Amino acid sequence: MYKNIRAAVMGSINMDIILNMEKVPDVGENVLGTDYGYACGGKGANQATGLARLGAQTKMIGKVADDTNGKKLVENLNKNGINSSCVRTDGSQTGMATIIIDGEGKNRIIVYEGANAEIDPQEAADCIDESLDLLLVQFETSEDAVVECVNKAISQNITTVIDCGPAKNFNLERMQGATIISPNENETEALSGMFPADENSILEASKIIMERSRAKYVVLKLGSRGCSVWNGENLKIIPAYKSKVVDTTAAGDCFTAALALEYKKCGDIYAACDMGNKAGSVAVSRMGAESSMPTIEDLVKFEKNI
Ligand code: ATP
Ligand code: RIB
Asked: Looking at ligand 1, which residue's alpha carbon is closest to its atom 20?
């Protein structure tokens, strides 16, 4: 379905430590965890995995260190069929995320950026050329690297999708005219000053983000409510699919990868959002970040069971 799409992701690559518990601790409190594990993650690498599992020809642009985690993470990219030739391995320390998950599958994440913050903007942008159809970025690397890559892609008419995680008031004015900008609820608040609680605040926040970024579409990820699309004229809310939530980690990454590919394939933003909702729904029903990304077969099976 997406095998002719040549995509690149410029973004973070992290080793995730995932700890499960019934209730997350309050200040000064000790709680017992139920289990823990290590997993390959990072918003950039998760999105690259999402693209590759859905069949796109995928290249990762990023940085790790020449340490144990860095080696494992690059190996894992290769195993997923992702071209890692634009991943530098000379960072100071590989990125790391500690993810704590409560009994309802809700997460809290602490990220140590390490090598992700050391990506050279020019070097990263040199990996982007007209042979690409699609570029995805997030905000888990340096602002300069994101801006340089997005502006290069826009100047080459490459479909450019900005995932706004993690939440920060990024200087959107430095990169004008991407194809899609897609924050989740907290990221929307960080960028617009408004939490997208109801239709009115969804519209107002979307308008502010469009004004700041001049993107063609503003797509808000709204968790169990699904997502919304603002095209400068109309607002549409596209409801989520019902899912048994196990762990929401990387649902947003998964949504963005599917959204981007379907949009690139058919040019219909509403169909793309629906595909994002399907992929997000599969992701929340599984444990882990990268490991929760569906394959194209998983999505076909999901569609048959709707
Ligand atoms: P995360 O930071 O946990 O990776 P996110 O906060 O960036 O995720 P969300 O808005 O929570 O992103 O989820 C992304 C998409 O996943 C939603 O737009 C929706 O399509 C799907 N999704 C999330 N939560 C649920 C849920 N409880 N039930 C069904 N679908 C969901
Ligand atoms: O979006 C989920 C990701 O956020 C995790 O894999 C973690 O590495 C953090 O970057």
From this structure: 277
